[in-house]
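To the wet lab folks,

You asked to see what we're planning to order before we commit. Fair enough. Below is the target structure as tokens, and below that is the sequence we designed to fit it. If anything looks off to you, flag it before the synthesis order goes out.
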């Protein structure tokens, strides 16, 4: 009653169902990939917000906000501000608008010539001050503190920083 044609028909149906399953899986995979690709630009700011903490240890410019203190980290021998500095200073600008004062403290590591390090720390503090001025903060609302050498534990990358607090 059953012939070889029935067996061949079963094989053909199995292959056909396999192909259909493969096409469905491919369509789902492509749609998930496209969805994630479109979501990536929106997800990047969140990833960038977490990244500066790791970069602060490296020898490069970065910025992070810790407990309301904006910390700018600098590459060795440089006074260039990290990207995202204006965004990090937004809360400071809002606080200054309510009558408070921004206090900028420069720090440097213990490597190299102390006089050159102190001068570089001062230049870095001036760069942060200029960024605040560029955001509309009056010079009378900014206080600069003398550069300090950081002798605490941590890397030299963490020591090369400028901190902005609100008082």
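Sequence we intend to order:
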């Amino acid at each position: 009653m059953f012939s070889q044609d029935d067996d061949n028909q079963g094989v053909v149906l199995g292959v056909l169902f396999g192909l259909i399953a493969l096409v469905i899986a491919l369509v789902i995979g492509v749609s998930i990939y496209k969805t994630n690709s479109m979501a990536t630009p929106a997800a990047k700011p969140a990833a960038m917000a977490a990244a500066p903490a790791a970069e602060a240890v490296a020898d490069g410019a970065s910025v992070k906000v810790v407990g309301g203190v904006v910390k700018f980290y600098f590459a060795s021998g440089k006074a260039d501000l990290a990207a995202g500095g204006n965004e990090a200073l937004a809360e400071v600008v809002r606080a200054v608008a309510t009558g408070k004062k921004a206090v900028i403290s420069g720090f440097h590591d213990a490597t190299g010539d102390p006089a050159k390090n102190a001068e570089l720390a001062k230049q870095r503090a001036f760069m942060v001050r200029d960024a605040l001025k560029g955001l509309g903060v009056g010079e009378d609302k900014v206080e600069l503190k003398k550069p300090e050498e950081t002798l605490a534990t941590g890397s030299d990358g963490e020591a090369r920083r400028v901190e902005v607090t609100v008082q």
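Structural context that might help your review: The two ends are 95 Å apart (CA to CA). The longest strand covers residues 142-149.

Thanks,
Computational group
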